[in-house]
Amino acid sequence: MKILDYLKKPVVAAALGFVLGLFIGLVVLGWGLWPVHWTNADPSSLRPDLQADYLRMTIDSFVNNPVNELAIQRYQALGADGLAVFERIRAGYPDQNAIKNFAEVVQAPTPLATPTPGTGQTPAKPGALTAILIIVGAIILFAILGFAVYKYLIPLFRHTTSDSPANRARDITNQAEMTDYSTRGDVQPIAQFMTTYVLGDDLFDDSFSIDSPSGEFLGECGIGISETIGVGEPKKVTAFEVWLFDKNDIQTVTKVLMSTHAFNDVATFQRLQAKGEPFLVERSKQVVLETAALQLVATASDMEYGKGALPEDSYFERLTLEIAVWPKPVTPQV
Prior knowledge:
The longest helix has 34 residues, at 126-159. 40% of the residues lie in helices and 23% in strands. It has helices at residues 3-7, 10-33, 48-64, 68-76, 82-90, 96-106, 126-159, 165-175, 260-264, 266-273, and strands at residues 191-198, 205-211, 217-229, 236-246, 253-258, 277-280, 286-290, 294-305, 316-327. Helix 3 (48-64) runs antiparallel to helix 4 and helix 3 crosses helix 5. It is α+β, with helices and mostly antiparallel strands.
């Protein structure tokens, strides 16, 4: 399956979006463009060696300017680390009298926490703020993951259970018989596929690789939902797109297979006509798509319309499509 086909799945898109967002948020924005810079931090946030230098300068200043209130304020700015820093520098300080006087003024070894001026609250250290941000980020992350599981994973698991529309469609496809063109005197196609849509398979999108008998890649083909009608779940599909890609061609050929209601409704017909040539789906009716080197024949081997409040024959309950591909004969150059 092509990468674009995987990206169409909601769970894959959600996981990729989460990883990409995490990378951009942390690496590009958080560490690259706008990294965190600490400014105007108080002395309690310094490294231990810088705290020691700060306290030595505080004592030196107290010797030259013995203002008790200023000495107490500067000492208490170290917070809970003040006593430990004081003990580390006590023995090595050259003026022991100054150490003694300073200790008496600041009442070591029982320092008080320093309130932030004008707030009356103890300033938070960067480590505490980081922890708070991590906790908040974790809560947000788990909330996002929980929403993704509820929104995408659980419906996906339901979609893949044995009673899911996709599995019922697979069973129908496995029981269907492909056309044996050789018994009709026709050339056997180089590629032949069978696919089935069942109401409720809202992610229906089937694609196939076209290879030559020698294994050479020639192109791809497939069918997917083109248009729905009404509201609510499951989606009511009123038209499909059959497409053919040829590696030797410059464009993908697309034709639209429409329900009777969509084909006869002028507005719907004109809107879908922009996506490709419109065709009315009928049992055993063939639709031909041609590119530069390939010819595809799509046959509705079985179909059934849904019944309900919507207009009659407006959406499909089931559609089984057989796809056969032949190489176009090479026109000799004159």
